Structure formats: structure tokens, C-alpha cells
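Ticket #4471: complex job returned nothing on first submit. Input attached below:
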Amino acid sequence: MARGKFITLEGGEGAGKSTQAKMLAEFLRKQGHEVILTREVGGSPAAEEIRKLWLSQDEGYWDPLAELFLIFAARREHLTRTVWPALKRGAWVVSDRFVDSSYAYQGNTKKGPGPDIVKKLYQQIAGKFEPDLTLLLDLPVTVSMDRVKSRGGWNDRYQLKAAPFHRALRKTYLALAKKNARRIKVIDASQNAEGVAKAIAATVTKQFKLKK
Ligand code: TMP
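Support reply: We reran it on our side without changes. The output follows.
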């Protein structure tokens, strides 16, 4: 049995990743694949426990490096219990966020641990493994902040941040996409959900030569 494919969705707040991850999973199921829909931080029982523990506290409660270790402990659990076993048995895995989120959120701040440690930790827990495709749902900062406000959000530490934080996040994501152009494809997420889903389906079809 051929190994399955690992597809990750990334983006700032309000980009619609969760909705698109569900729609992509449906699209791939229609193509005849077994599909596991998962997320980070989380995606396995222990990793979901870590997520709860992590998000139960306000920003500043965790030492930034300790926080990064928590995220990576969860990621290792996610990989070993969920992602790798599924890929091995031929299933396709769609994950709402993965390591690029750590580069964007923990790797970009002046006070944060920075990208080098993110890279080192990732190599320790995952070696050379990486997603077969990453879809970056890109949105102008003003649109993303409006969307979060209108859905009555602001329930998450990062959604509460002001525009400069979101701008830095977007800049880091776009720089990652430029550096990893073969793996990361930028999707215009300012269109409606159907339009974004169409763009994603076209990208995935092209990348994996799926039937149209
Ligand atoms: P979610 O809203 O997409 O479920 O993600 C919850 C928060 O977790 C989101 O604000 C981004 C954050 N996050 C990180 O800071 N670092 C990471 O490595 C991951 C996967 C998520």
C-alpha cells in the first residue's frame, strides 16, 4: 500500500482554515481516499490534553521556551499516534496547522524563542519528515481582524493582539512560502468559502495529479 499524503493548512486568525480543512477532507474522500482530519495543537488524546492545559492560561503565564516545549511535546504525540500510523496505512491526513504555525507564532516575535530553536526541535521530533503540501490561506490583516470580530471571536490569546502582531504573522508566513515554494502554496483567502475551496481543490489536484 502506497504511503498516504500529508496536507497542512496554515494562516493567521480568521482565514477560515477549519472550514477549508473540512471541505478538503470531503473532496479527497470523494476521490476515494481514506482521510484523517486533524489539528494542531492537538490531534491525539495526549496532545489535546496539552492543548487544554496550554490554552487554559493567559498569555504570559508560560515561559516562552516552556510554551514551545509544550507545543512540541504535543506535536510529537500527534505525529507518533495519529499522523504517521495513518500515512503508513495509506490514509491521507489533513491537518489544521502544523510546524509552520510555530515559525509564525513562536518564531517571529522579538521576545519569543525564535526560528532556530523551532527548527532544531522540529528536527529532533520529526527528522526529515515534512508535509507533502502546505496551503497557506492568506488574508490582508484588516480583513482577518474584521472577520474575527464579526464572528464574536477574540476568545484566543493571539486573536486579541493588535494589527502589528497580525502583520508580522502574515509577513513571516509569506516569507516561509517564498523560501519553500515547492511545498507551500499561497491561496487567496479573501474570497468567499466556495471560492477558496475551489482554489484549494485545483491546487491539490495539480500537485498530486488527481482525477478531475
Ligand atoms: P487555532 O485557533 O487554529 O485552533 O489555533 C489555536 C492557536 O494556537 C492559534 O492562535 C495559533 C496557536 N499556535 C501556535 O501559537 N503555535 C503552534 O505551533 C500552533 C500549531 C498553534
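The chain has one domain: 6-208. Closing as resolved unless it happens again.
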